Automatic annotation (TrEMBL):
One of its GO terms (molecular function) is oxidoreductase activity. It comes from the Bacteria. Pfam families: adh_short. It comes from Planifilum fulgidum. InterPro entries: KR_dom, NAD(P)-bd_dom_sf, SDR_fam. Gene3D superfamilies: NAD(P)-binding Rossmann-like Domain. Signal peptide: none annotated. GO terms for biological process: bile acid metabolic process. This is Ketoreductase domain-containing protein.
Length: 273
C-alpha cells in the first residue's frame, strides 16, 4: 500500500499534533499546516517525517498557495483533515462581534477554503478523503458558546452536504467530540460557564485523534464519547422535552455560578485544536 499524503490544518498543538503523530506511526506522510511555524518545525523534527507549512486558513491566497505547493512537490493530496479552530466562552453580549466573525472565518470558512482548494486535485486523481473536526456543540445548542456552536453547526452541515454530493469518489467524514483536554477547556474559562461534571471528563487529544484517523477509512458523522449519542438521539425524537431539561440544567448551573461570582467574566482564547 502506498504512503498517503495527508494534509492536516491546525497541526501545531492539541488534536492536530496528535493526528500528525499517529499518521507518522501508520506510515503516512503528514503535511502539517498552522499559523505558527516554530512548533510545526519542531513537530516534523520529532516525527522524522512529514513537512511543515505556516498557513493561515483565513487567507484564501495562502491556502491556495499551500495546496498548489503540496501538489507540485508530492503530486497529490490523498487526505485532507480540517482541524484548525478556536473558541470563546462568554455570554452572547459579552463576546465582541470580532470573535463571532473570527470563529466563523476560522472554524467554518477556513475548512471551506481548504476544501475548495483541494477537491479539484482529488477529482483529477480519481478520489480522496476529507475529515472535518467539528464538535458535539455542532449538533446541539450550547449556552455561552453561541459563536463557537454556530461555526460548528455550519461545519457539520457543510460536511454532510459535501459527502452527499461527491460520494463515492470523494468521501467526507465529520468528527464531533465532546470537550477535549486543551487550554480552551482545561483552565481558560474564568467565567466557569462550563459545568464542572463535564469539565472533569475531558477527552484526551490522542483518543480524539485516533477517531479522526478512523474516519479516513470509514467516513461518517461520529460523536465521541458515545455517552453523548443517547442524549442527541433523545433530542432528535423529543426536541421540546430535551430543551426543557437542558434549560433547567443550564439555569441551575448558571445560578450557582452567579452566586459564586456575581460579576462574571468572559473568556476569549484563540487555540488550535
Amino acid at each position: 500500500m502506498r504512503k498517503r499524503i495527508v494534509l492536516v490544518t491546525g497541526a501545531s498543538s492539541g488534536i492536530g499534533r496528535e493526528i500528525a503523530r499517529l499518521l507518522a506511526r501508520r506510515g503516512d506522510f503528514p503535511v502539517l499546516a498552522a499559523r505558527r511555524a516554530e512548533p510545526l518545525q519542531k513537530l516534523t523534527e520529532e516525527l522524522g517525517t512529514g513537512a511543515a507549512f505556516p498557513c493561515d486558513v483565513t487567507d484564501e491566497n495562502a491556502v491556495q498557495a499551500l495546496v498548489d505547493e503540496v501538489k507540485r512537490t508530492w503530486g497529490r493530496i490523498d487526505v485532507l483533515i480540517n482541524n484548525a479552530g478556536y473558541g470563546a466562552f462568554g455570554g452572547f453580549l459579552e463576546i465582541p462581534m470580532s470573535e463571532y466573525e473570527g470563529m466563523m472565518q476560522t472554524n467554518y470558512l477556513g475548512a471551506v477554503r481548504m476544501t475548495r482548494a483541494v477537491i479539484p486535485h482529488m477529482l483529477e486523481a480519481g478520489g480522496g478523503r476529507i475529515v472535518n473536526i467539528a464538535s458535539v456543540a455542532g449538533l446541539t445548542g450550547s449556552p455561552n458558546l453561541a459563536a463557537y456552536t454556530a461555526s460548528k453547526f455550519a461545519l457539520v452541515g457543510f460536511s454532510e452536504s459535501l459527502d452527499l454530493q461527491y460520494a463515492p469518489v470523494i468521501r467526507v467524514g465529520v468528527l464531533c467530540p465532546g470537550p477535549v483536554s486543551t487550554p480552551f477547556f482545561r483552565g481558560e474559562d474564568p467565567s466557569r460557564f462550563f459545568p464542572a461534571p463535564i469539565a472533569k471528563r475531558l477527552l484526551d487529544p490522542e483518543t480524539v485523534a485516533r477517531h479522526a484517523i478512523g474516519l479516513i477509512d470509514r467516513p461518517r458523522v461520529l460523536v465521541v464519547p458515545r455517552l453523548f449519542a443517547p442524549a442527541l438521539a433523545f433530542r432528535a425524537l423529543f426536541p421540546r422535552i430535551y430543551r426543557k431539561i437542558a434549560k433547567k440544567m443550564y439555569d441551575h448551573h448558571f445560578q450557582r455560578q452567579k452566586a459564586k461570582d456575581p460579576v462574571g467574566n468572559s473568556s476569549s482564547t484563540a487555540i488550535e485544536k
